[in-house]
Amino acid sequence: MSIAKVSEISATSTKSFEDAIDQGINRANKTLRNVRSAWIKEQHVRVKKGSITEFQVNMMVTFVIDD
Fold it and tell me: Which of the residues 42, 52, 54, 64 could staple to 34 if both were Cys, CB 3.0 to 4.6 A apart?
């Protein structure tokens, strides 16, 4: 039997939502072991002078706890 925990992570990118997700997962893997999945809870953009300047995702990352 496995026990998992969920950690909420916010990540940003100036390129795209996909890049923000990649950055968030890559960073989570540096701190958390056994990352199994992520649920994208929210997506936001920041706008300056009518143009998108930043993409932000809030995600719930699931990881399995070591025995």
Answer: 64
